[in-house]
Amino acid sequence: MSEAATIARPIDAADLIADMGARARIASGLLARTPTAAKAEALRKAAAAIRDAAPAILAANATDVAQAQTNGLSSAMIDRLTLNPDRIEGMAAGLEAVAGLDDPVGRIIDRAERPNGLVLQRVRVPLGVIGIIYESRPNVTADAGALSLMSGNACILRGGSEAAASNRAIHAALVAGVTAAGLSADAIQLVPTTDRAAVGAMLTAEGLIDIIVPRGGKSLVARVQAEARVPVLAHLDGIVHLYVDRAADPAKALPLVVNAKMRRTGVCGATETLLIDRSYQNPRPIIDALIKAGCEVRGDAAARAINPLVMTADAADWDTEYLDSIVSVAIVDGVDAALAHIAAHSSHHTDAIITEDQATADRFLAEVDSAIVMHNASTQFADGGEFGLGAEIGISTGRLHARGPVALEGLTTYKWLVRGSGQVRP
Amino acid sequence: MSEAATIARPIDAADLIADMGARARIASGLLARTPTAAKAEALRKAAAAIRDAAPAILAANATDVAQAQTNGLSSAMIDRLTLNPDRIEGMAAGLEAVAGLDDPVGRIIDRAERPNGLVLQRVRVPLGVIGIIYESRPNVTADAGALSLMSGNACILRGGSEAAASNRAIHAALVAGVTAAGLSADAIQLVPTTDRAAVGAMLTAEGLIDIIVPRGGKSLVARVQAEARVPVLAHLDGIVHLYVDRAADPAKALPLVVNAKMRRTGVCGATETLLIDRSYQNPRPIIDALIKAGCEVRGDAAARAINPLVMTADAADWDTEYLDSIVSVAIVDGVDAALAHIAAHSSHHTDAIITEDQATADRFLAEVDSAIVMHNASTQFADGGEFGLGAEIGISTGRLHARGPVALEGLTTYKWLVRGSGQVRP
């Protein structure tokens, strides 16, 4: 190819991601050795920069929102897109909260001395370069950037096209903070195009991007999982079960069920299927309370016999994540049947039991194969913040690397350090 | 489709793997709750069954070897394929060794009590179903089956077609031991066909197989990584570097270099590139010792100036895993240049430094981004057995989930257990 032809070739998505990835790799090498205090300072300076830039961020967001209204986006999507001074302060406070988290990098997982005198340590190190693909919420730019940086990783952010101006404004403030602290501007990069080909290039950027984290609805996550050649840390459905055992304390069961289903119906920890032991003495108040709270209850024949307002559940209901004020209710023959139902229908996110029988609880905790298994607690606690992680980049329903809420530690790996005094292997 | 048509349809590879996977999933649920002692007993009974079946295994192996000779396989491949009484005893002893390892299942990774009284634990659980795809070494059937079982996982084994009869005989002994201990025969399954389509079906068996472990040469691993939709635990090249710093003790450096390169040249921990600090006082004895040991030395101009027997290294040499009595040698300007060379050429498997300067050693250990980084030790120690893991299913050069030597713990994941007393989320 002649030089002229090279120059004339348009920059395509793969070239763009290759360039960003190469710069991210260099930045990640520096970040991996950046002390905790410097990373925290960068995030605090970024928080200050977000606050200083609030007028510019709000102006950029107003153009995104106006465009979204012109394009006829749904009111729910426009709500997710819209920023206000409270949401901007929330982003800044979130950056400061991440700055205060324990730094996993350098933590020694274990240590062993071998009979030949070799001393082995496994030490936590950052994953490297994280690609984050998200949709309309602009606050993800700040949240994901902060978690990546504090865990010593460089990141490449690709937000939704409808939030492009907002994301650019937030990203500019992040970079201002990061560089003010003396770190590389390439530590947090934002894909500068809303061309969908850039997503494809990220998903196939093996060797450039070490892990992809999709944050968004089912269709985004499904596309990412279908196309990615880079490992993906993702959660799909949260088909969450709550089982009320015969030995449940009714005074606990009723508020737990109502909270687990109705506190917030749109979160992945919201209960979607209620299983009630046929031997539980007083199921009616639970059903009545759900209906009174505005929940549509769909049940099997036995559930419908409890209250005539219960509607008929069809086969699809047992495999549906409603994310709405709807619950499916099955009456089951004790913990065996509950375990069988959960094994058949759970999405392995979160499942819970209510019982005062410790042996039954222990069995449920041992046998349910989900990322989070709870006893006498609301499934709405399935959240990195509630787990004390300080934040979360997602809840993994995969089995490898990290499971359940993922925060800083889940964005690290480890290496083996071997210290000797001249040992040769016999 | 009519019933007759259903019956007439041939069983294809996807159906076969779907059936094996479904049975493996049930077995994995049982194995996850099988006590350590029962798993160990199964492996000890399998070891006894292997010893009892030695004549049958040797007879089956003889047919494989005869077929391989007829097919004109290389002598190296026939050597890997061939069993003898010592190798069979080695397999049996290996099963007993795995039976004696610490069981990671049920181990509590960490525990926290939240201000609201919720008690959280992360507890190790098996991955589920492991698919192992390997080549001509029949002992992998026993090794991989044992590591999977002891870590509470069901496995689906797919060995090389050239070892089919040997693998069937070994597998039969394993199943005899497993069932004699009262465990499910589906815990260790062997794909009964050597049809290559079965490999493709395993690689795309998402939801049926939780992780694929390829064990074999580069072409196998490359095919698996290219085609797999199931996560893969794999290592590709071991382009291993050994850096002799200016502050290296010559009395340690010479035997370390010779051992790291020449002890066994075909293992992934064998040194492939030797980097010597230009300020190291006495490089000639090292080069001479390698040549005397039968190693072909290929070097840059400065290395060739040390000894005229050094041949010319070309650009490809710096990226080559020889697995042979060949080494590339570069003379570098201190630890900075060594780190830059390693960053550019390492396969992130194992890299090592020889120095008496603690600050230089610490910097090398911190900055080299490889699964294993060593100081004053032979790179030939890169091995799960030498690391005290008791065995290894492979050495991962990937960054996610497990890195470096992988044994029982690397075949587990964790779940979160949350114990409450009726807490609802505000």
UniProtKB/TrEMBL annotation, chains A, B:
It is found in: Cytoplasm. It comes from the Bacteria. GO terms for cellular component: cytoplasm. GO terms for biological process: L-proline biosynthetic process. It catalyses: L-glutamate 5-semialdehyde + phosphate + NADP(+) = L-glutamyl 5-phosphate + NADPH + H(+). SUPFAM superfamilies: ALDH-like. Residues 19-281 form the Aldehyde dehydrogenase domain. Its EC number is 1.2.1.41. Keywords: Amino-acid biosynthesis, Cytoplasm, NADP, Oxidoreductase, Proline biosynthesis. Its main location: cytoplasm. Pathway: Amino-acid biosynthesis; L-proline biosynthesis; L-glutamate 5-semialdehyde from L-glutamate: step 2/2. Pfam families: Aldedh (PF00171). One of its GO terms (molecular function) is NADP binding. Belongs to the gamma-glutamyl phosphate reductase family. PANTHER family: DELTA-1-PYRROLINE-5-CARBOXYLATE SYNTHASE (PTHR11063:SF8), GLUTAMATE SEMIALDEHYDE DEHYDROGENASE (PTHR11063). Catalyzes the NADPH-dependent reduction of L-glutamate 5-phosphate into L-glutamate 5-semialdehyde and phosphate. The product spontaneously undergoes cyclization to form 1-pyrroline-5-carboxylate. This is Gamma-glutamyl phosphate reductase. It comes from Sphingomonas montanisoli. The gene is proA.
